[in-house]
Structure formats: structure tokens, C-alpha cells
Amino acid sequence: MVDAYETVCVTGAGGFAASWIVKLLLSNNYVVHGTVRQPGDSKYDHLNKLERSPENLKLFKADLLDYESLRLAISGCSGVFHVASPVPFPTAITDPEAEVLKPAVEGTLNVLKACVEAKVKRVVVVSSIAAVVKNPNWPKDQVKDERCWSDPEYVRSTKNWYYLSKTQAEAAALEFGRSSGLDVVTVCPSLIMGPLLQSTLNTSSWLLPMGFKGTRVNLVVSNLQRNVGYNYWTVVDARDLADALLLVYKKSEAGERYICTAHAIGVEEVVEKYLKISHPNYNYSPELTHTKEEEEKLSSEKLERLGWSYRPLGETLIDSIESYQKIRVMD
Ligand SMILES: NC(=O)c1ccc[n+]([C@@H]2O[C@H](COP(=O)([O-])OP(=O)(O)OC[C@H]3O[C@@H](n4cnc5c(N)ncnc54)[C@H](OP(=O)(O)O)[C@@H]3O)[C@@H](O)[C@H]2O)c1
């Protein structure tokens, strides 16, 4: 091991956002225990190519619903980044309880219990603005900050199972911290974009290719847009999110919650201001527009006060497209 000074665990290490935090941690000399469900699968090959991974990254087979597997991965760690959670296409969910809610909520509690057993000093839980924005009682024109919580009953009534899973999991995590004394901090990213480290497309990374005209992609989009309404984006780059997670790990007080978002923009503006300039040869779908009701006003001021900053949206979009082109999603 080269100058390593602390061992931390990252759950769901092979996922889109988690891979970037693993990369950042390794480059900062952390020893990383990464949990994956199918060790040996080629979908995790990118992790073995990260700088310092041969000496400082150890992968553990673990499922969020298997406490013992989490306990083994977390044992010996002083910190945990709990990133794993199901992020399915909304239209693909058939059994919300088994596929989304249970792994998110019970899984988070399993991670936290294993952290208590391992005497972990701090856990950073990746939540989502899904746990923030769906609050019909929040004053309409007031910017949403960390005091705003999605209303679980309202979200349940809309059958938005992913949003419900993130709301319940985050609330349970903070409550667990309060009642057990475990140091828990939550971070609520908006839509995560940016280049992929892995070679397959995760759910949120489909949104950008959707701006490009293509039969297969548009078929998926039209359903998704009707159901979820992703025509107004509040966006953060996965690389800036990784910075935010490490920053709160090092600097936050216990029990805090942070919204992590950088840009807010309608899809038509994404196309006109950025994509048509950087990639003029694609045929862009004219159907991409957003309504006033879809707009969200969110604040990451609290995170910025801690020292967080983020890159320009143009950089995120260009780097994302370049990485999608490499795996031929834009063809
Ligand atoms: N993407 C976004 O726009 C966005 C926005 C806000 C918040 N978030 C949150 O950010 C986190 C990462 O999201 P992502 O976009 O990077 O998703 P992703 O690429 O799909 O990664 C999700 C990870 O969760 C793991 N996972 C799912 N169910 C599991 C289970 N039962 N046991 C163990 N591991 C399980 C998966 O592991 P395997 O590799 O083993 O399948 C995968 O590595 C999630 O907590 C998500 O809610 C995402």
C-alpha cells in the first residue's frame, strides 16, 4: 500500500456515481472497500483500471439485503459512503416494494447497523433531490433548501416509487443517526450527468441521448417523459458530486443534509445553447420543451459555504456525449 492513511467503504462501487467517488478516494490515497453484487462481472472492469486500484481497492460481494455481507465489507473501515440504491427506469418497475423500497430503506438501515458494529466514524449517505422536491406545501416561489422534504404520502399517491424510496431511506438514515449516535450526513444530488467510467449506460445517463433524435431512444423517452417529466433539468456533474461527498465527509457537522446541484435548465435550452453548437450534425427532437410547472428552484448554498464549487454545464455535456459516443449510444 502506497501512503494509504484511511480505509473507507463505498457501497455499489461499480455504479455510475460511485465509480467516480471510488476514483477520487483512490487518488487521495484512501484504501477503498467497494461493494458489488456480482464480483468478476465485466461491468466492474473499469474499477480495476483506476489509478492505485491494484494496491488500494478491494471489492467485496455484498447485497443491501444481506447484512452479513455488508458487515464483512464495512469491517475495518473508519468511513462509509453509502451510494448503492436501485435506480430503475420508472416504467420498468413491477414490484415496487421488492425492487425499490425494500433495498433502499432496509438496505440503508443494514449499512448503518453494520457501521455501528464496525465503529465507523462517519457515514455519508447519498440521497437525492427526489427526497426534497415533491412537497405540495412548500411555498410556490420559495427556493427549496435542505428544510424541504418530499411528502411521502403525496409521493406514494403519485406512485413515484423511486422518489418514495429515496425519501424514506434518507429520513430513516437521519433518524438512525439521531437515535444511535452514529455520525450520519446526507447529500441530495440532482440529476447526475457527466462522463461514464463504466461501459454501460445507467438510468440517468439515458436522458441526454434522449435529446437526440433516434427511434429507439425516443420510444423510451416518450414514456419516461410522460411519467416523470424530465424536461426541466437540475443537474450536477458526477465528478463534482464526488468532490462534494468527500468534502462533507471531511468537513460537515454530524446529522447535516446537503442539496448538491449545479445548474437548472429546460431541455430546449440544453439543445439550443449547447448541443446544437457542440454537435450541429445531430437531428434534435423538436418535441423537447418544458412547462413552467416543471421548473425547480433549488439551492446548494449550504454546500457551497462548506467550500464546494462546480464546473460549467457545457463541460459536463460535452464530456458526457464524448463518453456516450465511445460506447456507441449516440449512433
Ligand atoms: N443518477 C442520478 O441522476 C441520481 C440523482 C440523485 C441521486 N442518485 C443516487 O445516487 C446513487 C447512485 O446512483 P447511480 O445513478 O450511480 O446509479 P447506478 O449506476 O444504477 O448505481 C446504483 C448502484 O446500486 C447498486 N445496487 C442496487 N441495488 C442493490 C442491492 N440490492 N444491493 C447492493 N447494491 C445494489 C448497484 O449495484 P450492482 O452494480 O451490483 O448492480 C449499482 O452499483 C443512488 O443512491 C441514487 O439514488 C442518483
From TrEMBL:
UniProt cross-references to InterPro entries, sorted A to Z: Epimerase_deHydtase, NAD(P)-bd_dom_sf, NAD(P)_dehydrat-like
One Pfam family from the record: Epimerase
Domain of life from the UniProt record: Eukaryota
GO MF terms held by the record: cinnamoyl-CoA reductase activity; oxidoreductase activity, acting on the CH-OH group of donors, NAD or NADP as acceptor
Lyase found in the keyword field: no
Residues covered by the NAD-dependent epimerase/dehydratase domain: 8-257
Known EC number: 1.2.1.44
Record keywords, A-Z: NADP, Oxidoreductase
Regions annotated as coiled coil: none
Matches recorded under SUPFAM superfamilies: NAD(P)-binding Rossmann-fold domains
Similarity section: Belongs to the NAD(P)-dependent epimerase/dehydratase family. Dihydroflavonol-4-reductase subfamily.
Protein name as it appears in the record: Putative cinnamoyl-CoA reductase
Organism: Rosa chinensis
